[in-house]
Amino acid sequence: MSVDQKTVKRVARLARLKVKEEDVPRLAGELNAILGFIEQLNEVDVANVEPMTSVVTMKMKMRNDVVTDGHYPQKIVANAPAQDDEFFMVPKVVE
Amino acid sequence: MSNLTALTIAAARDGLKKKQFTALELTDAYLAAMEKARVLNAYIVETPEKARDMAKASDARLAAGQGGALEGIPLGIKDLFATEGVHTQACSHVLDGFKPQYESTVSANLWRDGAVMLGKLNMDEFAMGSSNETSYYGNVINPWKRTNSNAALVPGGSSGGSAAAVAAHICAAATATDTGGSIRQPAAFTGTVGIKPTYGRCSRWGIVAFASSLDQAGPIARDVRDAAIMLKSMASVDPKDATSVDLPVPDYEAAIGRPIKGLRVGIPKEYRVDGMPAEIDALWSKGAEWLKAQGAEIVEISLPHTKYALPAYYIVAPAEASSNLARYDGVRYGLRVPGDDIVDMYEKSRAAGFGREVQRRILIGTYVLSAGYYDAYYVRAQKVRTLIKNDFDKAWDKVDVVLTPATPSPAFAPGEITDPVQMYLNDIFTVTVNMAGLPGIAVPAGLSADGLPLGLQLIGKPFGEETLFQAAAAIEAAAGGYTAPQWW
After folding, report:
1. Is the predicted pLDDT of residue B1 greater than 60, yes or no?
2. Rounded to a whole number, what is the distance in Å from the CA of A6 to chain B's nearest CA?
3. Is residue B351 part of a domain?
4. At B146, which CATH number?
5. What percent of chain B has pLDDT over 90?
6. Does a structural domain hold residue B413?
7. A5 vs B contacts (CB less than 8 Å)
8. N or C: which end of chain A has fewer CB within 10 A?
């Protein structure tokens, strides 16, 4: 499988990365080199092999469904590029 | 007492206890050494006031006959760890100005035990790199140089600042993280000791996430004993990390000096890769001989899926990274570049904030997870991962540890490797360990023909860190230690 320039633009859009038109050919080349390297996995027989979900055999931990933390909105928004009255500010998203 | 920065943690600990010097004197010695070593660019932020305050508090506790396992010991912290009120940006522009309102569990454990923070250490952006050349804050310079050469070399990566700072004696030890080799490869390049513990041993809470199923924290230190002291404090069972494993943390230091008689050491034939330099091969054989001379049994083993670990890693790690890094959108923290609408703002902020290597990995990750490709790439890679782990599970019937080279070469020059896939090959011996969730330690074992440090790697069973410290100490006892000649 190899990616063309159209695919690069589509993937960049999915990843929310603004890509300059002049960078698209370079990116396509780099992605194809990496995908070419990955391609060797097709040699491996993976029939009847379970995909790994956890490297350590352990039971998923459960915790009690109780509030243990919170009530500090000022701390939450302290690093926001734009904030007002404990809200994150973003450009208008509804008409 | 002069030259306090030459002391290991174990020696400084004893000196403090015997009141030969104070924690403040020790910290001041490091702060002065850091100032002189700025050319290395290992620290991106120095925190001298905080360091002195912490050292004074340590002195008060020591005077009262109290104090933890790391009381008064000055440490450097990789920029990937959240430190309350102190610059934490994973060396990325996208986290511009970020100062966490909380402390990572690992660093909090160190402060609980009395350690002193000297500052934040340089690293590859979001821990993506093997040479510390992707940092927004510039390259780190390796304290080591080739014999009769003045050319700068890379310290390895991603924990390049941590490794360089430890090698240059501008911290007693450092925190680091390892997703595919980011502790062990820079440790090997700088003549230091680095251990990546078993997945789940150190809490990931408060560590900026790269690839969550692979990321683990661990120390880089000057010798095996110091690494054991550090890991004992860093490791914990943490309710804030669901993958933290409920096992008590052993006294790792006690394992050092235990005889290795009867220890079964595996030599995997698949690690003898094409084009491996003769000096790496020779070092590997020498390591096996050292262990054998101390009573270990050397066993040839096979890990047949080794060659597929790196390609599988370059699916799993970017896939998880693309998902983890989705949070950097210019809304809650970090860099915001204004746009025509909110999507335009996201796209411009991310394009301006992420460096080239990070963007490349986000694109690969997004591609392999996108509709129609998920099974062909991601699911297949996770199946290969199961096979890699099965290889090790079978090996543990025959051996207690596995011995391999740590890296395929000694340190190289900045700009020497520009092809991404070529750069990825640096992790060829280390990445299998992350894929299988196992512990691995890099220990210095010799010098290259050019006078650069070379390391060996020991791989252990899950939660077999004590055996790793025991075996690594045996290699260290035979090989000796390596200190970079000071030129800065």
Report:
1. no
2. 13
3. no
4. 3.90.1300.10
5. 97
6. no
7. none
8. C
- Per DSSP, helices labelled H in B157-250 are 160-167, 184-190, 224-234
Domain that holds residue A31: 5-43
Please name the residues in contact with B240: beta carbons below 8 A apart, sequence gap of 6 or more.
B105, B203, B205
Domain that holds residue B110: 4-261
Give yes or no for residue A95 having a pLDDT over 80: no
Write down the catalytic residue from B104, B158, B244, B448: B158
> Residue A40 and residue B311: Cβ atoms within 8 Å?
yes
ipTM of the complex: 0.96
Lowest-pLDDT range, B102-116, B199-213, B263-277?
Answer: B263-277
What's the number of domains chain A is made of?
1
Instruction: For residue A29, tell me if it sits in a domain.
Output: yes
Instruction: Look at residue A82 and tell me if it is in a domain.
Output: no
Q: Give the pLDDT confidence score for residue B113 in this predicted structure.
A: 98
Instruction: Indicate whether B179 belongs to any domain.
Output: yes
A1 confidence band (pLDDT: 50, 70, 90): low
Number of domains in chain B: 1
CB atoms within 10 A of CB B483: 14
Is B133 a domain residue? yes
Please indicate whether, in this complex, the C-beta atoms of B198 and A38 are within 8 angstroms of each other: no
| Alpha-carbon span B138 to B414, nearest angstrom | 11
Q: Looking at the predicted structure, is the pLDDT value of residue B163 above 90?
A: yes
- First and final C-alpha spacing in chain A: 42
**Binary contact (A56, B376; C-beta < 8 A):** no
Give the single-character DSSP code of B272.
S
CB pairs under 8 A between A and B: 160
Per-residue pLDDT band for B2 (boundaries 50, 70, 90) equals low
CA-wise closest residue to B118 among B61, B175, B68: B175
